Each structure stands twice: as structure tokens, then as C-alpha cells.
Amino acid sequence: MPFAIYVLGLMIFSQTTSEFMVAGMMPSLSTEFEVSVAAIGYLVSAYAAGMIIGGPMLTVGLLKMPRKQAFLALALVFLVGQTLGAVAPNYEVMLIARVITGISSSACFGVSLAICFSLVGPQSRGRAASIVLGGLMVATAIGLPAAMMFDQYFGWRASFWAVVVLVLLSGLLGQLFIPSSPKPESVRIRSELGAFRNSNLWAAYATSMLIIGATFAAFSYFSPILTNLTGFTTKTVPLLLAIYGVATVIGNIITGRLADHYMMPILTIGLVSLAVALVTFGLFAESSTIAMIAVIVVGLVGVPMNPAMATRITRVAGTGSLVTTVHGSVISLGIVIGSAIGGLTIDAGYGLVSPLWVGAVLAILGLLSLLPILRGKSKAQHTSTIRADEQHGSS
């Protein structure tokens, strides 16, 4: 694999660490800005809103720019937003910083994948995507705990500055190792916009949203479920979440190597496994053994379906920056929807176990969204078999 692909993965790792680390530093930020923990939670929402709404809009504005230059420009915008967060004197400035970083992160996600796909052949796109998207998993397993450790020992601003350094390093490496690309022609721009008339693209987006929604409906509430229902101590839960993070990395490596040839089996088996794990967890949440196994399975098959999801998008709509950016926004929307519905069911009085059932339902819906494709393949194989038999009989 070209070294540039690993540089893209480092950028995604840096930006994803920034996205999630606020959730691990809520007490420090709440004290610093003299606001409630709920208000700090809005900083997570502000980042997500920037990704969902602003990212695609910014990408449209960059379609006429060569992808390498677009990548570097977005890295610079993110750098400005992250630096603003590091020096934020009050809550309002931090909120603005989170919106800026969310917008640039979403656009950078799409451009990074578009560059990644342009550097390898069609037969290697799934594996290449797994390296770039591996930044998401490594950020959960390593970036988030590291940011929390920086917060505990050096203060929350040190965590922000650490990400600034990582983004700056990623940008410099990108300048050195990402090949220059020609200025896009207007034909490509029209082609990217025209891709959204493809109903298969929206079907793929829907499946991706349901997969991520199912995963985060459960993952967002793992900590209270594992402590209050399963009975693990608060000191044990970080270890379990670290194991979850390692499972996502392992799952991503496996799916990345298989996605190019077994994209639909990965999505089908992954969704079945995810649904079974969440249903089992929901039924036996008080069992520490089952809970631990379920957490590992969700880690192995949830977010690691990303390479297969990305491969499906490229097959139905190509490798355009806007198509991949909107896919990133759809994934962010899945995170918001899954965690929000899970929270609503808890507030409605259905108990801490309810997010697991929400996740299971979303996983089943994701599986149902694949049925038209699976039926189409089955009919095609049946027709092919009949034709082969007819040819054999006539001979």
C-alpha cells in the first residue's frame, strides 16, 4: 500500500480523537467553563451537526480544487478550529471551535477516502479503505484514552494541543507523500452531483446509517449498563471499553482484507451477528460473561463493517469526494440517531437495557434493507443456472 494511505489514516485518527475526546473530559470542561455537564454534551452535538450539515456544503465548494490541495486546505481549517478550542476563554468560543472542526472533519473524511481510492486499483479499495478508516478504530482504542490521560495529568488544553500537533504532522506528511492531482473538470463535478440520482446509493446510505445507529445505540450506554446492570466496577469498565476498542481494530483488519471480494457477505453476516449479540446482551445483561462476550462481538462486527460499507458506496456511485463526504455525514447521523433514541427510551422509563433493544431493532432493519439486493443476486444466480443447464442439454 502507498505510504500516503497511512498518512490519510493518521489524519482521520487525529480528527476522530478530537471528535470523541470531549466526552471523556466532561468534568474538566464543565469546571473550566462553569457550565453543566449537559452543556458540555452539546459540544459533542455541535461537532456532529457540523459534520452532518456543513461537511457536504464545504465539499461542494471544493469540488473544483485538486484533491490534494483540498485535503491540505481542510487540514488547515481543522487546525484553526482545534487551536481555537485549545485557547478558548469561554464556552461560546469552544462551541464555535467545535462547529469549525466538525465541518472540516466531515469534508476531510470524504476527500481522504476519495484520494485513497484513487491511489489503488478497484480490487484493493476495501483494504485501502480499512487502513484509512482504521483511524476511526484506533482513535477509540488509543486516542480517546490518551486524551483522557493528558487531561488528568496535564489539563484538558494539553489534549487539544496534542491533536493540533498530530493534525499539523498529518498535513506536512500529506504535502510530502500525497501525489498531486490535476484540476477537476466540470464533467467530474456534474458527475458527482448526478450520482445522487442513483437510488442504489441512497439504499447503501440507509444501510450504513442503520449499522452505525445500531452500534452506537448500544455503545453510547455501555458504561452505565456494565456498572448498574451487569455489576462491573467503575475501575473495570475502562478496561472493558479498551478491549472493545481492540476488537474494533481486529475486526477492521479482517473486514478490510475481505471487503473487496466478500462485501455483501460481510454486511449480511455482520448485521446478523450484531443483532444476535445485542438481543443476547439485552436478555442476559446481568451476566458478566455474556456481557463481556457481547461487547467483544459488537466491537468485532459493528463499526468494522465500515470498509464493506465504503466498498459498496464506490461500486454503486464511484469514488467522488462529495459521495464519500455525504457517506461520512450519514454515518454521523447514524451515531446521533442511535444514541438519541437509546437515551429517549431510558428517559421514557424502559430502563438501561432498552438501548440494547434499540440497537437490535436497528440492526434488523439494516438486514432488511439488504434483502432486495440479496434477492436480486439469488434470481440472477438462478437464471444463470437455468441457462447453463439449457446450454448443456442442447449440446
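the 2nd protein, sequnce then structure:
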Amino acid sequence: MTRKRSRVSASRVHSKSEQAAEKKSAALTELLAKRVLLVIESEGAVFDSLARKHEKAYLPAFAGCFSWGSDPAVCASLWHRLALRSRMRGQEPLRILLSALRILNRSSPSVRRTAVIRVLDTYLATPSPDPLSLAASPKGSPERLILDWISMSDSLLEEDGYAPRFGSAALFLKTVKSVAPGAEILVHSSCPEAIALNQWEMAGLGDCFLRIAGSERGDFAAYLRTALKSGYDKEPILVIGTTGLAWQAAQSVGARFYPIMPEAEEECWKYLLEDYLPAFMRGESFMAKRDLRDFMRMMLEDIDRVGV
């Protein structure tokens, strides 16, 4: 009798083991077949373009054109903070200029700077601002001072080529199908589409996405809404970006957002591939231990209280 009971027990254990293996296999098959949409921000997340543009062009142009008695190093530090480490990251340079001038003018008041702020505020409020309209003003006027900054920035940008890609971003794009075979990748760029496409192809990433959209297709939020109207609304969506514009776009459609933090891009992409995306595919992204406080601090900081 004892031997018989032992054999039955072993059989049951074997049956349970097979059932567990079958469930695990079925879950894996379902996971691999799961479709997911990844919408990726190009500038600053995949390519190190934001930091390069600001540090090589907009920042030195600001310190050179508008310091006016202030320490140029202080002006440079202020621009770096606003353009790369605040919710203004990724915004139009002229809007960053307006904020930088206002903050600088609080600690170092200037009649000329006040006049530039007033003109620039009005200029940005027009439906279609045109830099050529500034050229009609006399030399030394606020309009021409703004145009001087634009011209200096443009000349410095002309000396720069394509920004390098982040190595971990390239690894993610080339291997993401091993983690999520059903993933489809859309890319949004703030550059004209032809330039963005060429940049991705030159970086060896031309076959790593389904579609790429340039600035002529609207901002990030508009592009994301277009994607949802094109049949992607039934799939889980993960927005991968580095700016407040990308974060706000994800918020506007209820999509999950994964931040690529400035100066920690390589680490962020590595964690996304190895930990966060697998958890997202299982519907367990909330369990992935990722400290988002630094990014949220960037997004929610009161810029008007930034000091110099």
C-alpha cells in the first residue's frame, strides 16, 4: 500500500510540473505576440543634439550678446540650467532666451535688456514670427539685438555637423525585437523630416523604425494624436523622451512615459532594455524600480524662482 501511494504522489507532482511548464510557455508565447507601440523622441534622447546645440551655439551667443555688465560665466550657467535642466528643455531657443533675459534682469536690471524683453515677448506672441521682420529696425534697436543673437547662433551652428548617437540607444533600437517582437517604433524629430531621416540613416539606424516624422508634421503631441487616429489606439503605448514636450504629449493621451535623463542617457537606455521594457510588456511597469523624482523635479520646478 505504501508503495502505491508513493507512485500516485509522484505522478501528481509530475502532472503539476507539466502544467506549470505549459502555463509558463503559454505566457511567454502571449508575451512575444503582444503588440506595443514605442514613440521615441529623436533629439536629446537618441542623439546628443540638444546639449551640443546649446553649448556650442545658443549659450555662447547669449553670454556674448546680452551679459551687459553681468559675468558671462553666470549667464552661461543660467542658460545651461534653463535649456538643459528644466522643463524648457527642448523648447524653441527664442522662448528660452526670453526666460533667461527675464531672470537675468531681476538680478542685474538693465534698460536695454528690459526693452529687448518687451520686443521679444511681442514678437513671440505673433502667429508666425519672421526673423526678417526684425531686420527693418535700426542698428542697436532691441529688434536688431535679437537678430544679432539669432545670427550669431546660426553661424555657430553651421560649424557643427550631425550629433553622435548614444551607444545604449543604438543598442536598444537594434535589439528591442528580442524583448518585444511585436513592438512598432515611431520616431518624432524637431528637425525637418528629410534631415532627420538622413541623420538616422547616417547613424546606421535607418532600419530601426516604422516611420519617422519631422517638424512639418507638427509637435510631439500632434504627432502622437495622429498615430492614435491611424489605428494605434488599441495597443499599449510607451513614449520615450527627454523633454517636457514629450512628457506632456504622453500625458495628453494617457500613455506611459519613460524619461531619458540629461547626462544619464546611456544608463537610462540600458535600464529600459534590460528591466523597464520587459516589465512594461508584462503589464508590470509599476514594479520596475526607477526613481523619477529628478525628472519630475525638472518638470515641476518654478522657473521664475531660478536664481543666477
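The longest helix spans residues 2-33. The chain has two domains: 29-48+163-300, 49-161.
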